[in-house]
Fold these 4 entries.
Entry 1:
Amino acid sequence: MTEGSEDRPMAPLLTVEDLSIAFGNLDPVVRDVSFSVAPGETLALVGESGSGKTVTCRAILRILPRVARIRSGTIILNSRKGPIELTKLSERKMRKVRGSLVSMVFQEPMRSLSPLHRIGSQVSEVLCLHKGCSENAARKQVLETFERVGFPDVERAYRAYPFELSGGMRQRAMIAMAMVSKPELLIADEPTTALDVTTQAQVLGLMKELQAETGMAMILVTHDLGVVANMAEQVVVMHKGRMMESGPAKLVIQSPAHPYTQQLFNAAPSIPEDVDHSADEEPTDLILELRSVSKTYQVRSKSMMKPPVTIEACRGIDLALARGTTLAIVGESGSGKTTAARIALGAELPDPGGEVLFREARGAKPLPVHDMTRAERIAFQKKAQMVFQDPYSSLSPRMRVADALSEPLDIHGIGSRSERRDRAAAMLEQVGLGKDMMQRYPHAFSGGQRQRLSIARALMLDPALLVCDEPTSALDVSVQDQILTLLEDIRDRLHLSYLFISHDLAVVARIADEVAVMRQGLVVEQAPPDVLFNNPRHPYTKALIAAQPTPDISRPINLKLVAQGAGSPDSWPEAFRFTGSVIPSLTSYEPGHKVRCHV
């Protein structure tokens, strides 16, 4: 890793000097930004949403929105073909640079890939446009690139449409598209934000490996300081369009000088060395129980000649949530955690034999959520609410805040119009917002504020149980810290119970009293956080912990451990191995600690 600027090459590959960008006649959103990146080096642009990171990178490729203008500054690419001043290049010549000399991996692969064209055709197009390759030559190079980026079946991936691939595989396709023409500079804009932690670790490892092979430079846009510690040699910290701090990654991470950088590091979630959450070994006051809950779906097969495919989303889940505590369900996409949450709320019915029991108060008769009458369902919906993952889509853009918050009371016929408004105003203050915001629309709020509004709406009916489905995964680190603090405060003040769904173990370590780790519809390990994180036994749990990036250069991601635990269950050590027909039971390893293994 580069120790200082004196060790860097004399002629950087890319130089950005005094760059300022504005939208229309407004004040610049990026002001006086300068940095350079050398061949084979990774520079991380770090900052929260709205800091100007993505706009800066789009300016390099000249793909800014129409209203955006580069007010001042120069961007020079010292390519193999000689120095090119990108800010003065004509659009026709700029098209030859994009995808050939400079490529970009965007944050959300589903928005960047055409849903109407096969993956192979979209990646081949890059070679046909920029290299003049024939269809057969392009296909051969694309299949080789697919193999390098880790597709298990390259022919299937070539023929697949984007919706047929998982998030991690789609992002690998985007990396293949960016890498197939062997660019000199790769710009990766939050390339792993939408991915599970184990997939993220593998994609980051892949990018470093490809960089080492090709010698390309990389600009990595991220707000995750753990990713920075694992990937970057140089760091530029941005806030509100300005550079707050820049320098070698080792110095910036170990000794941040600017208060804003220090604030980012203080807010960054990480699994602490010693997690301490007190929890009863056998709680007696349970608000929610899931007993032998399974859920299977029949999915139509691709061929009309073949029978439907059975998908087992949940398999024999037994969970118990004590009143006033937080039970976290952790796992990757497709592990079954959200399905379990939907069953807990009565939005999905379990397969026959499964039970979901809810007790509104201590000693109350259990309500069978899996078999409710209409009247029981209406009463249950008042006491069990959900906070969704995406604060941007969970609020209607056509409803003012006052109407959005009052709607649950209106649906259940609670209170007069003025009483509902008073309740909404009081709830806004509960979540740290002012009642003067009542007449605004959701688009006038930041992501963190919208999530506060979502929490306020969930609290309007005075529930006893909140199901939180990835409530902080779409937020910046400092905003995430604020929302977690708010959730902890509300839980303790109102004596709420949380079923908390997440793939982020650092978040779970902070908020949970009990953690259940799921993989392929099964709970593979369950324990309080202090036990689970200090003494993990299952290979998948170990992989999740190892994959969590930490803002510490001396603690890199252990890709070997990640690959072993995140791999196929039939490749795990024999004690934990399971196949479709032979599945070990969830057994007690020690008091309060259960592991799915062969005894």
Entry 2:
Amino acid sequence: MKRCFFFFLSILLLPGVGHAQNAWLSVSDTIAGASTSFRASGLLDTEKVQLQLHRPDGTEIRLATQADDQGVIEEDLFGLHLQQSGDYTFEVLRQGIGLSASTDFQVIPGGISAYRSEIRTQELSAPADQTTKIPFEVWVRDAFGNPLVGKSVQMLSSRNEDRLPESLVTDSLGSIQGVVTSRTPGVSVLSAVVEDRVLFTKPEVVFYLPGNLPFAVGSSDTAGVGDFLKAQLFDSGQLQQVVSFSIADIASDVQTDQHLTVRVAARDVGGGVASQYTGTIRFSSSDDRAQLPADYTFTLEDQGEHVFYLSLTFSTLGSQTLNIHEVANFEISGEKTVNVVSGGPPQNIPGGEVPLEILTPTPGAYQIRRATITGSASACTDIKLVDGPTVLVEGLATDLAGNFVYQTPTLGEGTHEFQALCAGDETVASEKVRIQVDRSPPTDFQFHFSPSETVDRGSTFQFHFSANEDLSAVQCSFGGTLHDLAPGVDGAFAGSLYAPNTCGDYPVVCTAMDVLGNENEEPQGTVIRVCKPGEADGQINQFPLENQPPSAPTNLQAESGIDRVTLFWSPALDDKGIDRYRIEFSCLNLASIYQGETGLIFDKINETPDDRTQWYVSPIRDDEKCFFRVVAIDTDDAESDPSDVVEGVTLGAPDDIIGGGDDDGDDDGPGGGDDDGPGGDDGDGEKDKDPEQELEKSGGSYSTWMLLLVALLFGSGMVLMTRRQE
């Protein structure tokens, strides 16, 4: 459906400008997330204008463009700016003329997203008395979270004994409300079906016998709400039981042999991201010629989400599904359906029987760390796989159908050439498959301006950006506005920027992504001067180009865990950007703390791989107390001053080490020793002895327990614990 609005602007006579021409503007309606075309005509030849888009949530986006020599602009509005459904206003703002054209258009919601839609329950349990109700809500949304109105929703339960409302229709917020009751105790899994699509979230509720505690049902081996309720009643902390995976960043229609990026998130019983998930997942598909990401084990640094850049391709036309399962528990899964259409390079399906072939990966460039090699063999049952001169595996057995699969170790960057050979007769070999592994972000950013790096206030100038390799996207921030540059010639990206109306030196900060999804940011690539030198003395806002060391990290905190300590801190500030953080720490064992050792060497080092502000240190023993500080390092390797020092212990640390091991009542600070430190004088008239000598003399870390044993053996019934002061 298209709806065009035409606006006629009256002709005005402005001094020094002449007769301004009439302007018309038309924009097509579109679907959320899809681009739309617009046409502006009646402008002056090569006239420069600003385009302003008013979105339903009140935000605005301003773009710059120029009419052709016929006074016409025909361009697209990117779908990135049109993800919200609702009414939009689009304007063409003309400089110096005072005339503008404006029109409205509509963005309608897209199709049902089984992953963005969700079911919420207000209660987790209720008596199984057929009258006590558990309220629930279903929110039906598209892939961008827009509500879908007037959709029929059918509710289902995993147990026939439960009572649910019949088909309901979503309201203006895209939601329906209902209740579930039951007369039979047990755990029920609720599902919602919307237009033959089963929503991904399936919450669990517990019905228990009246008078019984709810955790008495379903708490043994269901891994469901019974465990959840039990954890809330007995366990400290919050349970994050992963029940499903969501799949995002894939369009509904994809092309054959198109390299796709997929984002996978582990979801807990409430539908949130399970940030502590560390399981292993496996991909599968109804397309038996699809190229899939290798098995992946989540790390704590993933925080429950991982992006597989350009690692997925479909090769068979029609409706295909992408499935994800947890390797340890295939009941934990996720699914997405896509429509595969023709596109990309032609499919190469060999004719006749091939004695030995590699099916995946296909030749090309990848960002992967490991590759999954699959193939078929009719000439042999044992396979040898090689990567150039390197033997990957020998004696790889095929299954009954003659298929084989192998996951490579971590691949280094560069070219890899895979080939399969029959073990025992290497004259039978597959074609070689050459891939390029590239995990390096683009570098050597180049900036070009037209007419120059010094521009007048309010003027428009052309900006060109390039790097050391082909790019897929470039976004630059200038004057408080984000600009998406468009692909140009020779791999460069270009766009029009508007100079602010205030004189000053303004940095251009760009983020570039190569064709494989490797991303890099230049915190301050260059500076644009608005106003010519001397025009606005005293008004120029200088942005220093020289590298300054970062500020010290602040608000450092330590959280105890099993055999580890997790650190959190506030990010440091820097003129060029933080590259990573260095965690420095020093650990003292129980005996050292008892003896009063306070010397902190900070001889242990961890470094974060990027600018994250959370890190855990492991392993740490239960009889140790550790002291931590953090140093920020910017992109030029300039280092900040250390943060304040915090101390941390494990969850298994004894009470006396948590309290510092100091039983004299004094507040001695870190380490639990006297304030004077090693070899100092604490005011008792005697000089303290060196802690190392003290440890050696007292028999090391077991001396205290030996004293206790002696006291128990020779005491008269009352144990007297003393601490010998030297």
Entry 3:
Amino acid sequence: MSFDGIMINAVISELKEEILNGRIDKVYQPEKDDIVLQIRCFGNVRRLFLSANPSNPHFNLTEKKYENPLSPPLFCMVLRKHIGGGKITAIHQPEFERKIVFEIESLNEMGDYTINKLILEIMGRHSNLILVNSSDVILESARHINYEVSSVREILPGKTYADPPAQNKINPLTLTRENLSASVENNPSVRIQQMIYKSYTGISPLSASEICTRAGLDPSVNTDELTSGDISALYGAFKAVIEIIKRNDFSPCIYFDNDSKPKEFSPFELKTLQPMRFCRFDGCSEMLEAFYSKRDSAFRISQKTHDLRKLITNNIERCAKKKDIHIRTLKSTENREKHRLYGELLISYAYTVENGADKATVINFYDENQPEITIPMDPDLSPSENAQKYFKKYNKEKRTYAALQTLIKETDDELYYLESILSAIESCESEQDIKEIRRELYEQGYLKKNRGFEKNKKSVRKSQPMHYISSDGFDIYVGKNNVQNDELTMKTASNSDIWFHTKQIPGSHVVIFTNGKTPPDSTINEAALLAAYYSRARQGSLVPVDYTAKKNVRKPNGAKPGFVIYTTNRTAYVTPSDELINKIKQV
């Protein structure tokens, strides 16, 4: 379900119980489109997350601690100035629109109490967070909209706030049999589902389909085909949904697809999605946190690592082409031993070969069968000179072969390293993880240093490996990038800890901290699953994962970050999946 008026109403009813009359202690802006308000209410501290992200606009109470920029953005500073320490006196949803208004009472610069409004507009790519004063003058917004962007409605500091353009829809809370019948008549030859969400405010296509399903009607049927009895059934189902909203009788749940990935969410059970598997939650915020947490993170990480992915992909293609050239050149040296043989035989039979001959037929005494062999010759050269020519060609091809072996090995190592960077990008969970990968690429020469690099290098906070706890209570740590892998394996882990890595596949280092104990097979299997999941073989089956005591792992001198060698290992074969990984407790 999109974040429609019904979902907004459900979350607001929850917020009124949790944070209404609470005071805003702190204001954070972890991302350009996101705001986090820390609110103290009745002795409890709650965090309210507000997102105007164009792809996933939403709001909910959260337990998550967000990483914030070292310097707060302008919008954040304006919010701190005008609503910091303020009291939330009202939370409402005008006319069931996809708009949430927080009225906040605070002291102005003159020491007088005033009411400012923080407005979250959930309108897809037009979503925005806007702060207005008591006179409806815009103080600041997350996204500025000038006349060039929209000739209908400007969102700029100093401008008077205006509601989004009216769509002449009916507030569903005022539903009657008469206005539903009128909506059917005013929308001839359209699907029932379309008629509902185009006629009533805040109703998404999925909600409209649910109303149809509860009425026993096919959502794709045209309004022209509806009988009086069908309209009565539709009205009854629609009214039942409205009663759920008015009573705040919500039972939030998430529906999952066949791959156990969250597909849809709803403030109540949906007959439309039966028989999809679903999971109930105690509150809407808890449900939204579960649904959006990974999706938001993945979206932002994808945006911020797009240039890195392109850079690494281009370098992988470059290395692949270079390796292909090396292999083709290597094939030209396949006759080097034959050239050496020709030279030695010509030296041995020089006295029997006439000068000016264009070939020599001699016995190959190096072969136990001593067959005759014909050697092509340059008639302008003596037999000895022809022999030296073959020796020269042999030595050149021998040097070329040795050099190409080294070059191919270096190219393979670089390809492996670049693949490990892609794996690290997939494991990124925060801005700090991305910065660490960028710093590694700077140091390895793949990115050029910009002016602010050294300054940023000092300000980057060190991120930590992912921390899991096995079903048997053992701590399992997973490195998120190559530098972190080195730190985890070579500095943090002790000799008795158990180290895991996918066999000849780029991926994260995984370590079980044993504390001198022997972990059971179940913990070994969970660590192997994590190693396979956080590798380039995430989508594979029966992925080979090597594991050994950390004392058997060492890093060669001069090796690239993340590269180690190991001995005395065993191998586990596992098939990773989101479902199995989600069963392992993450700290």
Entry 4:
Amino acid sequence: MQRCNRIEVRVEGVVQGVGFRPYVHGLAHRLGLSGHVGNDTAGVIIEIEGAEQALSEFLAALPDQAPPLAVIERVRTSPLVATGQQGFHIVSSNATGRRDTLVSADSATCADCLRELADPTDRRFDYPFINCTNCGPRFTIVRDVPYDRPFTTMAPFTMCPACASEYHDPADRRFHAQPVCCPACGPRLRLLDASGAELPGEPLAAAAALLRGGAVLAVKGLGGFHVATLASDATATAALRARKHREDKPFAVMVADLDTAQRLCRIDPVGQRLLAGRRRPIVLLPRRPDAPVAPAVAPGNRSLGLMLPYTPLHHLLLRHTAEPIVLTSGNVSDEPIAYQDDDARARLVGIADAFVTHDRAIHMRTDDSVVRVFRGAELPVRRSRGYAPEPLTLARPVPRPILGCGAELKSTFCLARGRHAFLSHHIGDLENYETLRSFTEGVQHFRRLFDVQPEVVAHDLHPEYLSTKYAYDLTDVDLVGVQHHHAHIASCLADNGHAGPVLGVAFDGLGYGSDGTLWGGEFLLADLAAFQRLAHLAAVPMPGGTAAIRQPWRMAAAYLGTEAPKELVTRNAEHWDSVLAMVARQVNAPLTSSAGRLFDAVAAILGIRDSINYEGQAAVELEQRADLTEQGSYPATVTTGPVLQLQGADLVHAVLADLHAGVAPEVIATRFHHGLADAIVRVCLMLREATGVSVAALSGGVFQNVLLLERTVAGLEQSGFQTLTHSRVPPNDGGISLGQVAVAASSLRSEDSR
């Protein structure tokens, strides 16, 4: 008879709310082992007893056969004294101690639940809140840890006997699934008119009828309210734009399945994987010319943002409508997404004709994530639902708990402890009180959820950013100011697990330079600890300051002066002379090296965009206009000196010359992109000669532009560079907070080593 051993097994990672305890229970039973498994604030704790061979098989199988949503980061074992215990049990959770457990992101409805949803004989047939341990809400309903029902917004719903039986049955797929419910005991869907009165009929069928009749609906999703129309309805989508005060920014489109998606866009295998994966982001894809969507869905854009349903409610709504729907954030332009029922009705009453809502509360609002496809991988544009709050693993642990406050646009924050960096969901642009409140509430929630009490707070150098002011208002913390573009490059380094040094190319709209001027086209010799500015785009005036961001024609005037084409001058005749006077007198015309403003100037010269309605619009539309078959490139000189200067004006004058020669704007747009990319490579070659560094890191919002990114990466690789780009966090300001954490951590390590 084999001698019994007993061991303690501690499992850390995303192991709560993903069916891990029932999985352990089943595995132990199959191997004839005894003991128990439970949750605590650090993860999953197992005490298990049996023959040595069976215990070895258990430990080998534990990570290999784990549930699909589980992410095991570490398994630790220690010996215990055998007790002779019989049977294996799930025990109550222990909520005491430091909280080291990780919380799963919300996950799309699994195939098993979808089969039940469509089965008329199943008791959850057509039930819009069906879920199991492999899918459903997680982060958006969690109030605290450990992840047990009393600590979620499902706490008010007492399980009926049938659900309780499943919940307590180790053989059932819903064994210890915290959001488990059914029509008898769970949340209830309602359809309300604009006044809040409940409308008759089955809510989703009636909602679909309203959509088919041209209505705009507010729909309560996982992380907040969306507003919806039929994607093919030109009148309804135009009305939605007018009501949201969102003139041009593209809407996302939700489609029922991949077959429908293929009819709207050209989708490669990577795009299919991203669309159909458990995270279900919005994927930006090349649009088919005959795609049956209204012009107002994505004006001036060759791409569509597509997503597949990720909740049973969405599946049912699309089944009833039988065609794609616009599904965009439920807010007025520049406000955070509405997520509480009363607030949604108050804020969306002028937008939505009716409301599809329910009585399961959302604890943390979370926007949809957005990704692009680049070289067979995802390039994040907005990292939010489906990704947050799952941590990013750092190459080295942070010496002390750190909070990175991020920037102003595309705001996120990042809390770090040990080797975990908890990058927040997308907050929005920190330009009003509502968004700032969302930011501060999010920080408090993450601090509580992951038990991180920051001792060091990293912030942007810009003194007027609300995120910087938030940092200054904190007490009993050490503050670390991080230059904006250094944070961009550090974010790319952290994304790739690289410590540097690198030649960092940080191209974006604007950032506060360490010399007090406005940077945005920077070449830095950088590691996580420090940086040196070795080159940049030659600075030009920004006539009117921030007005030049809203009106790209001002940047064209700054670059061209009296050489500007007559059409551009005529379109802006009322203010042209005053803008040139600002430049000449250097009054209200701060200098900037911004790459984003260079894109603005070219877009205005080509007649693509004189004024913008959303951040980065001119650059987005310039990329969309480019002729992808064109191979030409414009030259740009690099002037030498203590700091190299890339002459963006050369590109602008080449654009103007081709325009006067009658070259098509589409061809000119491509030649500009190629010329800028080739110039970036040339500067990097010059800097490699001077420094010996042959690793380049590309970051900043301009590198969301896949046309520019592809040409730049290809040129660098052909020149023998190792090139780092983003794949886990956005290159835009949504990744700044991670970069701030990485810089602050490196600074702390330097201090500790002295």
